[in-house]
Amino acid sequence: MKILISSSQNESIDGIYKESSRNLIKYLTEDKNTLVWGDGSKSIMGIAYEEFAKANLEILGYTNPKYIGEIELLPKAKHEVVEDTFELKKVLFNQADLIIILPGGIGTISELFTYIEEMRSNDVRKNLIIYDEYGHYKKLLELIEELIIKKFNNNSIYDYLHVAHNLDEFKTMYEKLK
Question: Residue 107 in 3-state DSSP?
């Protein structure tokens, strides 16, 4: 299965998010999955690369011209450079069988909402799991609830995403979705 991992490349994030993500990523490598990701050598994105490379699994990396320098740091991946961030999100989405949102910032949140909207607006069925161990996405999930309460969305938005709060919950979801 091709698994898209979306997450942070900021090295200064708290180590608990890195370690939590590493445990989840190691679990994904046990199933001989293919990593689909926006070429990244740092932080959680670097961890994804490292773990899939250690397991000798296929790694498909995509980037835009701004980050082309990352490619030389990631020799075990197959790389493709796309025109811009909009195209990058489209390519990543189209390559993925399963989308996993690990802790991240604005870029990761932008990808999350882009993928949900693509599925919702175009009747595309993909599975998406937000990994919220340590409550990183607590406020974002509260925002989604507020949008439902204010009737900007309805509960059907949950047809497009799943939330796991720990590795055991993730494993259960993953086994049902694969």
Answer: helix
- Cα–Cα distance measured from residue 164 to residue 65, given in angstroms and rounded to the nearest whole number: 33
> CATH number, domain at 56?
3.40.50.450
Residue 96: closest CA among 9, 169, 178, 10 = 178
Q: How far apart are CA 122 and CA 62, in angstroms?
A: 23
Total domain count, the chain: 1
Please indicate, yes or no, whether the overall pTM of this predicted structure exceeds 0.85: yes
Measured CA distances, 143 to 113, 137, 173 (Å): 12, 10, 23
- Per the structure, the complete domain to which residue 18 belongs is given by 2-177
Q: Is 142's pLDDT higher than 90?
A: yes
